[in-house]
Amino acid sequence: MASPAEDILRQQFEMLQTFDRLLVAEHACLLQAAVDQLPALTEQKTVLLATLETTEQQRQAAFRQDAAAGSSALWAQVQTLAKQVSHANQRNGAMIMALTRNTEGALHILRGTTGEPGLYGAQGQGQAGGAAARLLVSV
What we know:
mainly alpha; Methane Monooxygenase Hydroxylase, Chain G, domain 1; 4 helices; about 75% helix
């Protein structure tokens, strides 16, 4: 029969695997610019993260009761997977930040809020001497 600490570690491992799959799906959405799917993934990640935090508190309490659990092979697997998930989450976060900066930059150019003339005026017409003219000249 498994100890309470082992049961908790098994739960953590399964949740981390699920979190990793969500991050892989999120990464694929980011690569494909399928931003419409991101809110659902974010919601799933948020719910899972809250559950993981509760399970982590339970694990810490179980480890205080059973110090030997910290030397199990399953604990090593949980730690390895947690690092993998952390790296994947950082990678996705960096991609989201880069996409956000690119989008904001494009919006600034279109609105003409970069300090340079924009591509379009308030009525949607092109502005003479603006970025559109520079783009045509630079071709």
